[in-house]
Specification:
Radius of gyration: 20 Å
Structural class: alpha/beta
Number of helices: 8
């Protein structure tokens, strides 16, 4: 696997930015290599979960998931699920039940990171995907794939229309005027970093196509 261009600036601009700011990193990067070569360790250093002395820290701005063959869009983004909700006093009097089953949108790791990023625009937010090559990326990302193209400001170059479920949820949480769901469209903010690890010794169950690969920086 060869290194590809940073998704939001040219190699020349990247070199200049790195000289000006050594802590600057690509917005989307995959760390690949054999087991035990420090992929997850490197990611933890970048996210601040680990320091050079080996001390570990809990971070509210880091959202983690691990891909596997059964991971799908709903497990990555969210979907409607049955949940238990306390009944009102009137309902309890009628049914005698303390809880009732309701269906509501249950967000998953991508949506949680997305919301946090928009609520904390001054802070870097990290979405970390372990073993990215063990899941079907085309199925898991779905139309979110288009958001991975970033412009010179680090935001998604192309927005996508959110489906009704996630749109209603984001409008409730972020507000209809938020850039995160303005006009019913999704757009990655410039403070949302997506890091992934890939074990090159594993036989990938699902190939990662070149269109997906080119939207990431790669580090061996």
């Amino acid at each position: 696997i060869s290194n590809t261009k940073t998704p939001y600036y040219s190699n020349e601009e990247k070199d200049l930015k790195d000289e000006e700011n050594p802590t600057n990193h690509p917005l989307q990067q995959i760390f690949y290599g054999a087991p035990g070569t420090g992929k997850s360790h490197e990611v933890k250093l970048l996210t601040g979960e680990l320091d050079e002395a080996g001390n570990e820290y809990e971070k509210t701005n880091v959202f983690r998931t691990t891909f596997h063959p059964d991971t799908d869009y709903a497990a990555f983004v969210g979907c409607y699920k049955p949940t238990m909700k306390p009944t009102s006093k009137e309902q309890k009097t009628l049914t005698g039940k303390d809880e009732e089953i309701v269906y509501e949108f249950v967000p998953q790791v991508f949506t949680d990171a997305y919301i946090y990023a928009y609520n904390h625009l001054e802070e870097s937010t990290y979405l970390v995907i372990e073993e990215i090559n063990r899941g079907n990326c085309a199925q898991i990302f779905g139309d979110l794939f288009q958001l991975l193209d970033r412009d010179e400001n680090g935001v998604s170059e192309y927005t996508i229309k959110a489906d009704a479920d996630i749109r209603a949820y984001l409008e409730d949480v972020l507000g209809c005027d938020s850039e995160g769901i303005k006009d019913g469209e999704l757009c990655l903010p410039s403070n949302l970093y997506i890091y992934a690890t890939m074990n090159t010794s594993d036989q990938s169950l699902f190939p990662i196509d070149s269109a997906f690969k080119r939207r990431w920086d790669w580090k061996y």
